[in-house]
Description:
The chain has 605 residues and is of the alpha/beta class. It contains 21 helices and 22 strands. Among the domains are: 176-246, Oligo-1,6-glucosidase, domain 2 (Alpha-Beta Complex); 351-373 and 385-466 and 474-534, Glycosidases (TIM Barrel), CATH 3.20.20.80; 544-604, Golgi alpha-mannosidase II (Immunoglobulin-like, Sandwich), CATH 2.60.40. The protein has an eight-stranded parallel barrel. A four-stranded antiparallel β-sheet has the order 17-18-19-22, with helices on one face. Helix 8 links the parallel strand 2 (118-121) and strand 3. 51% of the residues are buried. The protein binds 3-O-alpha-D-glucopyranosyl-D-fructose. 3-O-alpha-D-glucopyranosyl-D-fructose (OTU) binds next to loops.
Amino acid sequence: MQIPAPDRLLAVLPSHLHADARSRYAEHGATLYRRLAQLYGGSAGFDAWYEDLLALAGQLLGARPASLLAIDAQRAAQPDWFASEHMLGYSAYVAQFGSSFKGVAERIGHLQEAGVSYLHLLPFLRPRAGENDGGFALASFDDVDPALGTNEDLDALCTALREAGISLCADLVLNHVADDHPWAVGAVQGDARLREFFHVFPDRSMPDRYEPTLGQVFPQAAPGNFTYVEALDGWVWTTFYPFQWDLNYANRAVFAEVAAALLRLANRGVEAFRLDSTAFLWKREGSSCMNLPEAHAILQALRALVSIVAPGVLLKAEAIVPTRDLPAYLGSADTAECHLAYHSTLMAAGWAALAEQDTSLLREVIANTPPLPPAASWVTYIRCHDDIGWKILAEEARSQERLNGIADFFHGRHGSFARGVAFQSGRATNGTAASLAGFETASTPEQAADCLRRLVLLHGLAFSFGGLPLLYMGDELGTLNEHGYLADPGRAHDTRWVQRAALDPARLAQRHDASGAAGAVFGALRTLAARRQSQPDLAAGQPRTLLHAVDPAVLALARGERFLNLSNFSARSIELDLAAIGAGQWAVDGGRVVLGPWAMLWLER
Ligand code: OTU
């Protein structure tokens, strides 16, 4: 296959950028062209369209500010910078964390104290008027939500974060736009070109053929995957809520528009993008329309384009899918895809181990996780703004009954310590980390100490597994479930809001008081972060070894040559003979350790 020359890319660039652009195109141009040809090569005018895309890429590279070009150069020299043991992430809503962009800037001190170097701010672009799925229904890719500030405030926040050594990650909602986004509005007004940005069917015949093999993300609040829109006189594909219209990536114009939107945000100083709902980008009859090869081709083309225009920028895949489908989102040694991917089954399996007091599911997930390709990393986390959907563990659990038992446990049944809130007819669970770990039900200091140990255990796994650990807003302060959302008719049906309350200033003020829950959790996580930073074998790329811990409640996870995490997921005290579990080289007195209930021990040598 003949790869087109980069003439149109270079034509619009000032000459001092030519050498870089040439060498990046030499490295990534072939992937860009091949993937796009795979997706769109059959359509008329493809080559001319590709040339126009190169010209657009040139314009965006030419518009990149000098400060960001410097970051591109720095990161090109150290492409695995984000896989370091020094990285720690934090995820928050702008409104709930600091009320506005300016307020978030005022919280930089808190992030630095916690050791954070990567801040994921949940969607902050202008959302749909009315209900908007926590900002995941976008009316604009270019203007921020006026309730949070101005575009200039965002620029100032990017700069302030960069000066503090914190990379800003923004959501890029790839799969859909809101029904009041200009593309949707244009389609409704009869613009035939914009109608092609969506999957619109004149009657139920195609939807009825797709539906039997599709899943349902919100079966209660938004059943089905198609919505009848009268103004279009047709059925629109809406995987999520009816007001979120899936984009039609079979249309090459959609790819070009979304890629350009990403690069414009990158030129404002956004350093990483959480690519929302990556699994759903391509549709094929008879399939689940998830994880299809074309969805990967889209992401690989996007990565190649970013590598040419803004190589310092990171792409992070959000794909809530079974373990076997996760590694593809990081690509391979041959073709890079995203730099980062959420390890969602590891997250769910950690909680499952707590419920079952048994690590078998967790060990299977770990064993099913292959080594990382070069310069790639997992995102390891224990909670986020979404629910924990237990069905992603179906392959490892092998039975629905087992998953129901885990869900029941977190919904407080059978004398459980957890206070989660059911979601999606009980197939998923919401709640803050502290409420799931038992802080709401703890009535004695001993029980509170057990809760703290459970939180440390789960965070300790995220901090040592081999990835970029991501804290969820408020979890660093032991924040509990907050039920105020039930009074809001736009939110009451969606229990995910139970873990999305505003950061409590009182808890924040108590963060240094170790006698209270907020201070105890904050202190424990800071200690953990400091230990992680001092251990180079905890960098994401270091090899991982599961030892046979004999007792099913124990996880024994070694990293590199120097680190071993021993974690007891049960209420029992467990004595371990290190030689017997193949860990004799970690010299401890008498070769034996006792792990108390829910205790975690990090051995280093
Ligand atoms: C993502 O989530 C977001 O994280 C959610 O907050 C949004 O509602 C959703 O997309 C639509 O934009 O499967 O891979 O609660 O785990 O919706 C995409 C279910 C997703 C989420 C699911 C999710």
